[in-house]
Amino acid sequence: MHEVSLVESIVTALEKMMEEEGWTQISEVRLRIGVLRQVNPEILSFAFETVTKGTPLEGARLFVTDVPLEYRCRECGQMWGEEDGLCPACGSPSRETLAGMELEIESLEVEENP
Amino acid sequence: MKKIVTLQQSIMAEDEKFAAAIREENRKRGLLMVNLIGSPGCGKTTLLEKTAELGGFPFAVIEGDLATDRDAERLAGWDIPVVQINTAGGCHLEANIVQKAMESLPLDSVDVLFIENVGNLVCPAEFDLGEDFKAALLSTPEGADKPLKYPYLFASSQVVLLTKTDLLPHLSFDMEMFTEDVKKLNPEAPVLLLDASSGEGYDRWISLLQERIREKRAHGR
Of B110, B76, B154, B74, which is closest to residue A101 (Cα–Cα)? Predict the structure, then answer.
């Protein structure tokens, strides 16, 4: 059910942006979503269709790119991607999450008055 | 005329502005803010009651629930300043609502502001409220498999609290799997085992908070 919350946030942000930028329509929305966010693509599409009804985003095409996990070891700099705790090279528990947590609006296709 | 606009901005950009404002306000105040997240019935309010009983520092609470002010009533008995937010069906709290609720709390006279989020392991983890850290709560009857089922919460929290450990003898809770899974998701987060009936484990929770209060004060006020 968090897909609905996400779509509501997207619609609120984009409606505001449309008004500020003077776009007449948004025909395409591209998102980047990290795997750790556990977004179900089918539920997201359905939520998008439902929530955008009656808004200026109605009928817009939705594309989602999944972003895989990427960690970097703070000790030795090793990069790895599986959901595994310790650094596979040096065994350190200290790591940065570089990717996999994204919830991003990557780009839009918009219409504007010439 | 059609055109492509590249944004690369967070879906929650709007709400993150409120979260950033809260963080800045609390930095100036030197106030520690902790976001408690766990299922309905996992012991979030009990954790706050035990913290009032054993902590020895003043704190305030923002209670998030779909309906009723029962949690706020429970805490009022402890003389804790508390504001109840009813989300009327909303499954999580958002920073803009929290910011308004903070206005009615005496935040200059407390050391910690706890947010008891709506009981849910999914959405509350995704909305930044401007907290210093999230604490993930899991009660033993919920099962040891939950961290991997709800990875975002357990990966993004700075401490994991396993509650109701007094029930362990009656459950087939796989402690090894639980601690291994938490470590996979979040190798640096301490896992604290809490038993509210005997008070066991709370000393670590209280000293963790005291340390964070000291750090926060040293950088603010």
Answer: B154
